[in-house]
Write a structure and sequence with these properties.
heterotrimer; A mainly alpha; B alpha/beta; C mainly alpha; A: two-stranded antiparallel ribbon; 2 strands; 69% helix; globular; disordered N terminus; C: mainly alpha; two-stranded antiparallel ribbon; 76% helix; ABC_transp_permease (chain C); Branched-chain amino acid ABC transporter permease (chain C); transmembrane (chain C)
Chain lengths: 350, 229, 286
């Protein structure tokens, strides 16, 4: 079986850094942080004014999923590991904390510790097995593991089965509509931490090896390094960050839903990453924001009168956000192999 | 004598490495032409590029037909037989199945193949993966002789074989060369000298020398980096 | 005893369903290196085509229509979407992922997310007594169909020229082309075979579960993937063995332990096989 091929765009050297370019992420972060203080009306783009709870909830979701996509890209884009089981770790974070607080009546301290423990142990054990195979077989095995997690969550009484589990004890800081702004900041902080950690990891010594593994596994082996151990390291780090995001997801939604355990959830992350440009600096982040925004807004659009009034051949596909996103994805894979990040590169070159 | 195969300015890039950097040479329509060079010089890549098994640019003309826009199977159907370096035998298929897969002509020349390699008939039902290296090489060469090919590309046929088998393979190549021209990649210089005096030398992705092996023995030794054979 | 027989027959029926999906998946992967996430969609297309035809035609004819639609759809997917991307396996997987999402959504747009009741012919709804157990006939239909497909595939692989090309191509695709064979024709052929078997699985799954949903293929596909990995990718015999094993383990564990344990045991089985034999139970075709 062939080793996973390098994702388009992964080998392109980083563009020269200008001073402005170096600082714009910080500027963007500051701008995003002060969003809740602005009352700018954005009709059509967001459900309400920029700082309305509805808009902040949507923006927080976009930021959180951008964070998930960045953790996924650490595997897919930077290490060349095509995992179909990332949802498992998001679910592990959400459900572990939720069950500990809601069912076992623990405090938030122990609940977070439990989630952190699961977030390290679970990927270490499962990764150790799954990484024995490469490429497509790895994809299948991770898919299978996640599927068990999904089935267990959906059938177990403790996790609320197919109904999901509402969070009983929401910390005061995040409770109520008025505190949506705090959830927004939490999601922003999560994204910032994930971006910094992944950036740091990718540029560190192991990060270089990850990239080399994605490019050419044999070369790494020749250097006397074990691709297995480095892959496991990337796998555990990525899974741990996803688990942390799962806890944020729990707070943002006020509960755990079985949807976050499904393979469709992982496929969503994969689509975000490829849409934005796998293995690039900001691709996964942009893809995550764009996909989540489209997913949410298309669902709203699908239920609106505009679509209902269309003739059937147009109405039927447009009533399904999944169809639009799936088709968009196929188009991107074909015509924009570098994703959105690749687009800006074409323009600069032209 | 007109050239049957002409290679001009052949380039192969794989990833960031530029493996062939403008290789040009010609192969006449009879006898053996040796393709020589050190390990990693690009001999195997040259054969693979002629067939289109690696992405290439440049010109390859076989008997008047331009090959670079053809797919490998179309090139082979023009009458180019290929016995690759690792022999390319299908381990899970029996010897008979390996030969049957290679059949292209209406009347495959099993009589010739079985005459040259009687062992292939007795081992017809044996999975090719259980054969010895020498026997696998017989399957690989047998496949090229089954059809009425107009040229054979043979890559290191004696690699890793016992001396007795090497002689056997050389005998077969000599016999085959009487009817079909061969472009031969081979490290065993003594064997090459027995078969031909005509060689193309490749060094670092370029042609370093074309002509007779006996022209300039010292330069040859330097280019090949081997002791006197 | 009768429980044991019923569980065995039901497990074998489930295994038969898995085999029908996994055999095509395994051949497509083995030969063309394509992990076909759209295989569940092939199943869905076959199931809905059979359901649609079943309103006008008797069941066996409706299944034939479903299989035909599945073949046409699979071949179209291979020619239009997959073929331009050969030698780029990751892109191919991504395209099948996107196609699967879009296609399932389209099925849902056309026929709704709710289960569509699937009319079962009278003879399939009846039961037969086997060693004291009352076994529904649909189990026999599933097992019979899987055995027929298995035998047909073995004959194809061992007795025909294209079968020979497929077996050789699973080992070394490039060498097959270097023998002057257009291996891409064989790719289209395995997609056609896979599409036919998956569509048949869709029709039979509809009969077995009594209803169909757009997502039916997706949930079965995951177990088919497991079967493919356990059986060794590209091996039809391994696939059959693994399908039987997975179906039986799942059925027995779910009955004797608790719901969900069956699925967990199957994945445990997968982990054990990977640890002991990373290449799966077998490493070759047929």
């Amino acid at each position: 079986m062939s080793a996973p091929s390098t994702v388009a765009g992964a080998q392109v050297p980083a563009p020269p850094r200008f001073r402005v370019r170096r600082w714009w992420p910080v500027v963007a972060l500051v701008l995003l942080a002060v969003v809740p203080y602005t009352t700018l009306p954005v009709p059509g783009v967001l459900p309400g004014g920029l700082n309305s709870p509805g808009s902040l909830q949507l923006l927080a979701l976009c930021l959180l999923f951008a964070g998930f996509a960045v953790t996924y890209d650490l595997l897919f884009g930077h290490t060349g590991l095509l995992s179909f089981g990332h949802a498992l770790y998001v679910a592990a974070g959400s459900y572990t904390a939720n069950v500990a607080v809601t069912k076992l009546h623990w405090g938030w301290g122990p609940a977070l510790a439990a989630a952190a423990g699961v977030g390290l142990l679970l990927p270490a054990v499962l990764g150790a097995v799954a990484l024995r195979v490469n490429g497509i077989a790895f994809a299948m095995v991770t898919l299978a593991f996640a599927q068990v997690g999904s089935i267990l969550v959906m059938s177990a009484h403790l996790t609320g089965g197919e109904e999901g589990l509402s969070l009983a004890n929401v910390p005061a800081l995040f409770a109520g509509v008025a505190n949506t702004v705090n959830l927004y900041w939490l999601a922003l902080a999560y994204l910032a931490v994930v971006v910094v950690l992944v950036r740091w990891a990718v540029e560190s010594e192991p990060g270089r090896v990850w990239r080399a593994i994605g490019d050419n596994e044999r070369r790494v082996t020749v250097l006397g390094l074990s691709p297995y151990r480095f892959r496991l390291l990337a796998y555990v780090l990525s899974a741990f960050l996803a688990t942390a995001g799962g806890v944020v997801h729990l707070l943002l939604l006020g509960g755990s839903t079985p949807q976050i355990t499904t393979s469709a959830f992982t496929v969503g992350l994969l689509v975000m990453t490829v849409l934005g440009g796998a293995g690039t600096r900001w691709g996964a982040l942009l893809g995550g924001v764009l996909y989540t925004y489209l997913d949410q807004r298309l669902s709203a659009l699908a239920g609106s009168g505009t679509v209902a009034g269309l003739p059937a051949p147009l109405r039927l596909p447009l009533s399904q956000p999944e169809f639009i996103l799936g088709a968009l994805f196929v188009v991107v894979v074909y015509f924009l192999p570098g994703g959105i990040a690749g687009l800006s590169r074409y323009r600069r070159r032209a | 004598m007109t050239d049957l195969l002409r290679v001009e300015d052949l380039h192969v890039r794989i990833g960031s490495s530029h493996i062939l950097q403008g290789v040009s040479f010609a192969v006449p329509g009879s006898g053996v032409t040796a393709l020589l060079g050190r390990n990693g010089a690009g001999k195997t890549t040259t054969l693979r590029a002629i067939l289109g098994l690696v992405p290439r640019t440049g010109t390859v003309v076989f008997d008047g037909a331009e090959l670079t826009r053809r797919r490998p199977y179309e090139t082979v159907q023009l009458g180019l037989g290929y016995a690759p370096e690792d022999r390319g035998v299908f381990a899970g298929l029996t010897v008979a199945e390996n030969l049957r897969l290679a059949e292209r002509d209406r009347e495959p020349r099993y009589d010739l193949v079985y005459e040259l390699f009687p062992e292939l008939r007795t081992r017809a039902k044996q999975p090719a993966g259980t054969l010895s290296g020498g026997q696998q090489q017989m399957v690989a060469i047998g496949r090229t002789l089954l059809n009425d090919n107009r040229m054979l590309l043979v890559d290191e046929p004696t690699k890793g074989l016992a001396p007795k088998i090497v002689t056997e393979v050389a005998d077969v190549l000599e016999r085959a060369a009487a009817t079909v021209p061969i472009l031969l990649v081979e490290q065993n210089l003594a064997l090459v000298r027995r078969l031909t005096d005509r060689a193309v030398l490749i060094a670092e992705g370029r042609v370093a020398h074309t002509g007779a092996l006996s022209d300039d023995p010292d330069r040859l030794q330097t280019l090949l980096g081997v002791g006197r054979a | 005893m009768s429980t044991l027989v019923l569980l065995t027959m039901t497990g074998l029926g489930l295994g038969a369903l898995y085999f029908l999906i996994a055999s095509g998946l395994s051949l497509i992967f083995g030969l063309a290196d394509v992990l076909n996430f759209a295989h569940g969609l092939f199943l869905g297309v076959g199931a809905y085509a059979t359901w649609w035809a079943g309103r006008h035609l008797p069941f066996p004819l409706a299944v034939a229509v479903g299989v035909l639609v599945g073949v046409v759809f699979a071949v179209a997917v291979e020619l239009v979407l997959i073929r331009p991307l050969y030698a780029r396996p990751i892109q191919q997987v991504l395209v099948t992922v996107g196609l699967s999402a879009a296609g399932v959504a389209l099925l849902q747009a056309a026929w709704g997310a709710d289960p569509r009741p699937f009319a079962k012919p009278g003879w399939a709804a009846a039961t037969t007594r086997v060693l004291g157990a009352v076994v529904p006939n649909d189990r026999f239909v599933l097992i019979g169909a899987a055995i027929a497909v298995f035998a047909g595939l073995l004959l194809f692989l061992r007795r025909t020229r294209y079968g020979l090309i497929v077996r050789a191509g699973v080992e070394d695709r490039a060498m097959v082309t270097a023998l002057g064979i257009d291996v891409r024709k064989a790719f289209t052929l395995v997609f056609a075979i896979g599409g036919a078997a998956a569509a048949a699985a869709g029709a039979l799954a509809g009969m077995y579960f009594g209803s169909i949903t757009p997502g039916l293929g997706g949930s079965l596909l995951i177990f088919a993937f497991i079967v493919v990995v356990i059986g060794g990718m590209g091996s039809v015999t391994g696939c059959a063995l693994a399908a039987v094993l997975v179906g039986l383990v799942q059925q027995f564990a779910n009955y004797y332990a608790a719901a969900g344990v069956g699925e967990a045991s199957v994945v445990l089985l997968l982990a054990v096989v990977l640890l002991v034999r990373p290449g799966g139970l077998t490493g070759r075709t047929a």
